[in-house]
Design brief:
Number of helices: 16
Radius of gyration: 21 Å
Low-confidence stretches: none
Helix content: over 70%
Number of domains: 1
Shape: globular
Distance between the termini: 22 Å
Oligomer: single chain
Strand order of the largest sheet: 1-2
Largest sheet: 2 strands, antiparallel
Order of helices and strands: HHHHEEHHHHHHHHHHHH
Mean pLDDT: 86
C-alpha cells in the first residue's frame, strides 16, 4: 500500500478530476440551451457516471495491471467482438448509424479491449516477424471493420494511431509500420485530392460522379471533406455547423462571455444536436474565451504527458504498451475533436474526453486511465 501512494501519479489524477468538473459545467450550460427538458438535467447523469467511474478508476489502479492482463485480455477482446457484432444485428439506429446497444456504445468499450489485448500479446506477436505483423493487422482489423460498418469513422480514426504507436513500441516489424504509414499518407492525400477535383466549383456533374465512384467514402463523408476543403461554399447547408462552430469560438474573445452566457449556444445558432457532444468545445470556448481554452489544453497536457511518461519509465513491456496506447488514444480524441471545431481537419463525430456528454465514453476513459495509474503504482525494479 505504501508503494501505491508513493508511485501514484497525483498530477494525472487531479487533472482528470478538474476536467470532469469542467465537463459537468459545460454539459449543464449546453443542456439548458436545449428546448427539450430532458437535457436540462443531463449534467446530473454525467456527474453520477463520473462518481461511479472514480470507483472503477481506484479499483483498477489498485489492481496489478499484469494480473488484469493475464486473466482479462482475451476475455475483453472476445467480449468486444461479440458486442460489435451484436450492435450491428440488434443495435438502435440513430442518425443513420447503428452505434447503440441498449444504453451503451460497444465501439467505445472495444477500443480499450483492443489495447489491452495488444499490450498483453504484443511481445509474442513480435517474435513472428512479418507474420506477427500480419496477425496483428488481423487482430485489430476485424473489430476495426465492424466499427466502420456501424459506421463510426471517428472511433476508427482514434484507434489507429494508438495501435500503431503500440506496435512501434513493441517492435512488431517496424519496417512494415513505416510502409503502412507511407500507404496511409499517400491514400489520404489521394482521397483529398480526388474530392477536391470532384467538388471544386465548375465541375460537371458527370465528371464529379466519375471521380467520386473511386473514392471509398460515403456521401455524408464526402460532404464533410468538401466542407473542409471549401468552407465558404455551402455555409447555409453542409458547411453550417463548421461556420457556427468558428463563430462560437471566436466570439469568446480573450476571457469569454461567462458560464451559461454563450449567445451562439443559447440563441441556438450552434445546432442543439451537436452542442453537448461533438461540438461542446465551442460552447466552452465561447463562455471562457482564450484563457479558458488554454487552461483546458493545459489540463489535457497534464493528463496525456504523465501517461506517456508512465509508459516511458515502465519496467515492463506490457505496462509500457498499455500506458502508451491509452495516452495516444486520449490525445487523438482531444486533437481531432478540437481540430475539427476550428476547421483544421474534416468534421467527424467524436467526443471530447470528460467534456462531451456520453456515459459509455466517460466510463471507458476513466477505466483506461485507472489502468495507466496501475502501471505507475505497480512498476517493478527490473524490466520484464
Amino acid at each position: 500500500m505504501a508503494r501505491y501512494f508513493k508511485n501514484f501519479n497525483y498530477l494525472m489524477f487531479f487533472a482528470m478530476v478538474a476536467l470532469i468538473a469542467i465537463g459537468t459545467v459545460s454539459i449543464w450550460s449546453a443542456g439548458n440551451a436545449r428546448s427539450e427538458a430532458v437535457f436540462h438535467g443531463m449534467w446530473k447523469q454525467t456527474l453520477s457516471t463520473a462518481l461511479f467511474g472514480l470507483v472503477v478508476y481506484f479499483v483498477l489502479s489498485a489492481l496489478d495491471y499484469r494480473r488484469l492482463l493475464d486473466f482479462g485480455s482475451v476475455a475483453a477482446y472476445g467480449t468486444a467482438l461479440v458486442l460489435l457484432v451484436a450492435v450491428l444485428a440488434f443495435g438502435s439506429e440513430i442518425y443513420g448509424g447503428k452505434r447503440w446497444l441498449w444504453f451503451f456504445q460497444p465501439s467505445e468499450i472495444s477500443k480499450l479491449c483492443i489495447i489491452m489485448f495488444l499490450a498483453d500479446y504484443g511481445r509474442k506477436l513480435r517474435d513472428f516477424g512479418f507474420w506477427g505483423f500480419m496477425l496483428t493487422g488481423l487482430i485489430v482489423g476485424v473489430p476495426l471493420l465492424l466499427i466502420l460498418a456501424e459506421p463510426d469513422l471517428g472511433t476508427a480514426l482514434t484507434l489507429v494511431p494508438a495501435v500503431l504507436m503500440m506496435m512501434f513500441a513493441l517492435r512488431i516489424w517496424r519496417k512494415g509500420l513505416l510502409v503502412i504509414l507511407a500507404i496511409m499518407a499517400l491514400g489520404g492525400s489521394a482521397i483529398m485530392g480526388a474530392v477536391y477535383e470532384a467538388e471544386k466549383p465548375g465541375v460537371a456533374a458527370e465528371t464529379r460522379a466519375a471521380i467520386l465512384k473511386w473514392v471509398p467514402l460515403k456521401p455524408h463523408q464526402v460532404k464533410r471533406v468538401k466542407v473542409f476543403l471549401f468552407p465558404e461554399e455551402d455555409i447555409l447547408g453542409a458547411g453550417y455547423n463548421l461556420r457556427q462552430a468558428k463563430i462560437s469560438i471566436g466570439s469568446g474573445g480573450f476571457s469569454g462571455k461567462g458560464i451559461g452566457k454563450g449567445e451562439t449556444n443559447h440563441l441556438k445558432y450552434l445546432p442543439q444536436a451537436i452542442s453537448m457532444n461533438d461540438f461542446i468545445f465551442c460552447v466552452y470556448a465561447e463562455e471562457t474565451g482564450f484563457v479558458g481554452s488554454l487552461a483546458l489544453l493545459a489540463l489535457f497536457g497534464m493528463l496525456v504527458i504523465p501517461g506517456a511518461w508512465t509508459a516511458f519509465t515502465s519496467n515492463d513491456e506490457r505496462g509500457e504498451a498499455l500506458a502508451l496506447g491509452v495516452s495516444v488514444l486520449v490525445f487523438a480524441h482531444v486533437y481531432i475533436n478540437i481540430a475539427m471545431s476550428i476547421g483544421l481537419v474534416p468534421i467527424t463525430g467524436l467526443p471530447l474526453p470528460f467534456i462531451s456528454s456520453g456515459r459509455t465514453f466517460l466510463l471507458t476513459v476513466m477505466a483506461a486511465l485507472g489502468m495507466v495509474q496501475s502501471v505507475a503504482t505497480h512498476r517493478e525494479a527490473t524490466r520484464q
